[in-house]
Amino acid sequence: MRAKRSKKYRKLMHQYELTFGFHEPYQVLVDSNFLRAVHQFKMDLIPALERTLQGKVKPLISKCSLAAIMAAQPINPRTNNPFRPQHLPPPTILPLRHCSHNDDDTPIDEVECLLSLLCPNQDTMRNKEHYTLATAEPVALGHDDVNSDNPKKRKHAESLLEERNQKAAALRSGARSVPGVPIIYVKRSVMVLEPLSIPSEKVRLGVEKSKFKGGVEAALDVISGIKRKRDDEEEEETTTKTTTSRDRGLKKAKAPNPLSMKKPKKREKPKPENQGKTGDKQKSRESQDDGSNGQNDAAELNADSSVKKKRKRKHKSASAKAGTEATDTAHGQGQAFDE
Known about the structure:
The chain is α/β, with parallel strands linked by helices. Helices cover 55% and strands 9% of the residues.
């Protein structure tokens, strides 16, 4: 059960942090009834508060609460000052919260003092200092004659106790009316953290709705920004297309490709010393060229003359044929005779 309660309190304080800006160490205003209940149930003040609020705490007591505690104590006859109560921790554990409600700094009623600290301005109704209220139901004091045999004393003590109960109820109801005030109270030796009050819940819902609206508006802004970017990009594309089409329509004289051009040969200027030599060399080269050209021409003529023309064949007459045949036969007989 303690684990479930601590988890619940942790979530509750997280809501106070998100909605009202609470942070550690939490400032806790304690009243006189709370200190009496803690002492009565033998509880450690700071560890118990840290377990309840799930974080580091800084307990504080107002000057008017301290005056109310000391006023309820009997007076020491030696010093004419009230005795220091046992349920009041030392200032190192429970420092004093100075409050000035009037010019002469006289203390006022404890409930009015605590409510003024929780909500300084009644118009804004805001817990500016992020205080947490720690209170408890009033306990019968040592000098109260609640169990007295005298009915008058018993009745007077009961009336005082009822008055303190009314003041405690008024303190808690006044703290609930201020949004953003966590309330701790002691009930049967257990510290309890009250859930969010109705005004605090309304503020929390309003903050969540505003965050939701802000998130939706931010999302819409992002979407509209994306659309604007797209429109701008489209406009840029159209402008670039128009400029490129205009550039294509105009024909400009282009330079030749330097890679396709033939590189010019570098001519070295002859030195004055070698001018005569170069002239002789050129003449000898020219004479050689002329000789070679003449030889080539002669060779070409010889080649043309060596080529014989094709002789046309002439037909012989009949008498000539007979004469040639007779000579051929006589020549053949002579060769046979020789053999």
